[in-house]
Design brief:
Layout (H helix, E strand, L loop, with lengths): L1 H45 L5 H8 L6 H26 L8 H43 L1
Helix pairs in contact: 1-2, 3-4
Length: 143
């Protein structure tokens, strides 16, 4: 019985859970598209002089501004970097020979998290001037 559990738990976590998550996300997207299409069809049926392109565009996602992208990247960079540093700190608490695998796992997780965080922060540093220029031109055009 214990061997069966040892086999089924990794299969459930590594196979069934990701498949279920992808299925739920895809079903939600399909359902959303179907509802949008039904609203468009009803609007076209009820009002013949409606601009279907503008109505369909109004249902779409609003594009994020460069400043919102900048702030999102900064947040992700800081979170990943701090998560990596926290994992590295936790790895130092596993110093006994029995905990070598656990320590190595935390060190690997820390390395990946710090690398991803550093990549986001590098992108933030590179795009900072561009976003500032775009914001200035946007502010000047509104005045």
């Amino acid at each position: 019985m214990e061997q069966l559990v040892d086999i089924l738990v990794p299969l459930g976590v590594c196979v069934a859970l990701p498949v279920l998550i992808v299925w739920i996300v895809m079903r939600a997207a399909t359902n959303s598209d179907n509802k949008r299409a039904a609203v468009l069809i009803e609007a076209i049926k009820n009002n013949a002089d409606i601009d279907a392109d503008k109505l369909a565009e109004s249902f779409g996602k609003k594009p994020r501004t460069p400043e919102q992208l900048f702030q999102s990247r900064l947040l992700k960079g800081v979170l990943f970097t701090f998560g990596g540093v926290a994992s590295a700190i936790v790895s130092f608490f596993y110093n006994t020979p029995d905990d070598v695998k656990t320590r190595n796992m935390f060190i690997i997780a820390a390395a990946f998290a710090i690398a991803i965080g550093a990549a986001f922060l590098i992108v933030v540093a590179v795009t900072r001037k561009t976003v500032a220029k775009e914001k200035d031109t946007e502010d000047n055009s509104q005045e």
